[in-house]
Design brief:
Elements (H helix, E strand, L loop, with lengths): L2 H17 L3 H17 L3 E7 L4 E8 L10 E2 L4 H7 L12 E2 H9 L8 H16 L4 E7 L2 E8 L10 H72 L7 H15 L7 H12 L9 H4 L7 H7 L2 H9 L6 H8 L21 H16 L10 H11 L6 H15 L31
Antiparallel strand pairs: 1-2, 1-6, 2-3, 4-5, 5-6
Bound molecules: fe (ii) ion.
């Protein structure tokens, strides 16, 4: 091969290497290329195997090829140590070894005057190279890491290698190392990406499962809460249709006040209107259903129902606002209510609406121990307590909306209970509104 041939071959090899993504295939191509183009007894490549922590032959071609599956070199093999070692080798070339050069070094007695160990090292190297039938060994580095060694047999025609040829092999070995390292990096990156993608999918699947489970739990719990509310309602034989009536009055008042009744806010208000007394499920029946005025001790227990209600709703993640309204539906506008004694705007507007609607209902309802008051009297009662128990604006809006909504149906002094939709008793109005005896 002429100098020109090598340059061309090198360019071609470099172009090919860029395209080859499989490192093992690349090495086989190099070995085949060298044996054919240079005409060698054999060419072989040793590569570091990370799993086995030693160097193995990935390929060997030529008449005197090495049985690749039988020969392995440990990391302390003289050849591997020579190339891997960082220690300064004086004038000795670390970037390739030729058996011819070793022979010259060994004959140089000056070289070993103070370095007998070097002589034995070179002798060991010579033995290894003879054993592998190699006349030249060229290491392939990536940074300082010895990735592999290219072993070249003898030229079939008996010539020795020129420095230009050896330089070509060095470039080839280092380019191959770089390509192999890049391919390894790409493969690692790919498998890491695949693993990450797999983990991501797994995580998404689990989150989905959890979300579905949570949704199911929430639905089940919501059903339970609704049935509790119904149970509370059912304990009073006169409350048939109460919740629908309260909902209608509540929405009517909210609309009159310009409350946003689109979507979520309406749902919150409706849920609060339905569930405000759900905590009464925790109040003993002899108090809840007592057909007479409650004594102070009984009132104390009865007044626990907003807190109990909020606690019942707490596990429903979408019901935080509703639970807060339930908690405060017996707060008074002037701060004299319970459980927290908050006042005015601090009380959620929905709670102020529930308070008025519920009280009105209590006043006009037919009760098991008393008759409902006429509507006008109920209006007067609300007005009397506006500013103390009730938000005056809510009371005003409620009365205005009530009269307008019922339109022609509204008649002064007619009992609301006559439409059959709002019959309700409420022990828990706190004594501000005069509940008929
Ligand atoms: Fe209540």
């Amino acid at each position: 091969m002429t100098s020109y041939d090598y340059q061309e071959a090198l360019k071609n090899a470099a172009r090919t290497m860029v395209r080859v993504k499989n490192p093992r295939r690349l090495l086989k191509m190099i070995v085949r290329f060298i044996v054919k183009e240079v005409g060698l007894t054999h060419a072989s490549i040793l590569m570091y195997d990370q799993l086995k922590s030693r160097y193995i032959f990935v390929d060997s071609k030529g008449d005197l090829r090495i049985p690749v599956s039988l020969v392995r070199l440990d990391r302390d093999n003289p050849l591997i140590r020579w190339f891997s070692s960082r220690e300064h080798k004086l004038k000795l070339n670390k970037y390739f070894l030729s058996s011819h050069q070793i022979k010259i070094w060994l004959e140089d007695t000056q070289l070993f005057q103070h370095r007998q160990s070097l002589k034995s090292q070179l002798n060991e190297l010579k033995d290894v190279m003879d054993m592998l039938k190699a006349s030249v060994c060229v290491p392939g580095f990536y940074k300082d890491e010895l990735l592999g060694v290219l072993l070249l047999g003898h030229k079939v025609k008996g010539e020795s290698f020129s420095l230009e040829e050896i330089s070509f092999f060095q470039t080839l070995a280092n380019d191959a190392s770089m390509t192999i390292k890049t391919a390894e990096y790409r493969e690692n990156l790919l498998s890491k990406n695949q693993e990450l993608e797999h983990q991501k999918q797994e995580l998404e699947r689990r989150l989905q499962e959890i979300a579905e489970l949570r949704k199911k739990e929430q639905e089940t719990y919501y059903q339970i809460v609704m049935s509790l509310a119904a149970e509370v309602n059912a304990k009073d034989p006169y409350t048939a249709g109460h919740l629908q009536g309260v909902e209608r009055l509540g929405l009517m008042t909210a609309k009159e006040m310009g409350y946003d009744l689109a979507g979520h806010k309406k749902d919150v208000l409706v849920a609060a209107l339905h569930l405000h007394d759900v905590g009464k499920i925790g109040i003993p029946d002899h108090i809840l259903m007592k057909p007479a005025k409650l004594n102070e001790e009984e009132w104390k227990i009865m007044r626990q129902h907003p807190v109990k209600g909020a606690k019942i709703l707490a596990p429903l993640t979408g019901f935080k606002e509703v639970a807060n309204i339930v908690l405060h539906h017996h707060e008074n506008y002037d701060g004299s209510g319970y459980p927290d004694g908050i006042k005015k705007d601090v009380i959620p507007i929905e709670a102020r609406i529930v308070s008025v609607v519920d009280a009105f209902h209590a006043i006009v309802s037919k009760r098991c121990y008393s008759k409902g008051k006429p509507i006008d009297a109920a209006f007067e009662e609300l007005k009397r307590c506006a500013g103390t128990q009730f938000d005056p604006q809510v009371v005003e809006a409620f009365i205005r909306a009530y009269k307008r909504t019922l339109n022609g149906k509204y008649q002064s002094n007619s009992a609301l209970a006559s439409d059959g939709s709002m019959v309700r008793e409420d022990h828990s109005t706190g004594g501000h509104v005069s509940v008929p005896k």
